[in-house]
Each structure stands twice: as structure tokens, then as C-alpha cells.
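Worked problem 6 (solution included).
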Amino acid sequence: MQTSNLLVRLMIEASDGRPLPVAKQMSFKAGARIPDELLYGEHAFIIEKGVAATLLLSPRTGRTSEVSMCGFEGLFPLGLVLDMHPPRGYVVLPQLGDLEANVVDVTAFREWVAGQSKLERMLLDYLYFQLVEKNTTIACMDQQGVEERICRWLLMCHDRTFGDFIRITHEEIAQMISSYRPTVTNTVHQLEETGAIKLYRGQIEMLNRHKLIEICDGTYGPAEQFYRQHLAPFGK
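Solution. The predicted structure is:
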């Protein structure tokens, strides 16, 4: 299988020569929820292009909060890949445009990995990367304001896109960082005044990553550094 996915490409190179299970190419429209029968079925999604946002749905309020994102650096749902059934209540949808993925049978994928210590280690390293990223998400949401949360989120999206333009609306940003659209609008205009970003209708151009990283105050970078050290070059 030809793939642009960083993690799976590394795994193929480190494998004992057994071919990766046959994959089915699938595309999902931006903003359209991935059906539960796929998400909670027996499939692993190897992302080739786009970003999948995982959101936790509150049964009481109906609101969602983003808890993780995955692009061409990884795959999901990791629980199934590790032979564990993830709890329900999560919503996964493409953001920043359509999502393209190679979808493989998760049992066949686990059999491909089984007994290959290098591949098993790569999955554990990827799991730890996700844990570090989630921990910094929690810290950022709990300890920092809207400006810091927007900067961190933009940097993470930028890492997972090609080029410097991020296709996103203020309403979508507000949903992802658990804020409100007017607050987000005011904040991104303030960021534009600093020269860190440039606003266009329906998209944002990244101009100064160093400025955004500085504003994040330590909540962006640890996870990305771990990925670069233990897996592959990642980030911009």
C-alpha cells in the first residue's frame, strides 16, 4: 500500500516484509460526522490527508469539546488497534477540509503488527505521544485563556496541513476550544494585529509561528518534540 502517513510508512519500513492488510480508500466530507458503525466497528483509519477531530459529546447539554486531533501523523481509533473497545460518546468529524483515509480491517492490522517488536514499540510511542498531547490540552484548557488556546490549536492544525493556510471559521474554532464565536472573533483580530496571522474569509494564514508558540507559554511543543525524537520528523 502506498501511503503518505508518517507513522504507517515507518511501520512498513520496519516490518519483516509482510504486506500491510488490504486497505479501502475512503473520503469524508468536512464537518460530516463519521458514522458510528464505522467508528465503533472493526476498522482502523490511516489518515492520508486532512484532520480528524475527536470531540466528547455531553449528554446533558449536547455541547461538544475537542479532546484530540489526528492527521497524517497517525491513525484512529487507537483503542481498537490496541485490541480495546473505546467507550462511546465520542464524535469524530473531519475539520480543515475533507478527510482522506485508507481504512483497514483492524483485526488484520493487529495480526500484521503481532510479533514484530519494532512495530509494537512504534504503536506504544504513538500512544504516549497522544497522552502527552492530551495532558497539555487539559492544562491549556484549565489554566490558560482564549488567546493561548487559539494559538495552540492553530499550531497543531498547521502541523497537520500542507502549506500555511488553515481553512476554518470562527464558529468552528469556538467549538474546538470550548468558547464562543464573538470571543474568538475578537481574539483572532488581536492576533492579526500582532502580525502572527492573517485573516481571510473562511481561512487563516499562519505568518509567525514563533509568536504563537510564545503566547502558548509551554502548552505547545512537548508532544511534538517527543514524536520527532522517537518516531519521525513532524511539525513545522
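Discussion: The first helix runs from residue 6 to 14.
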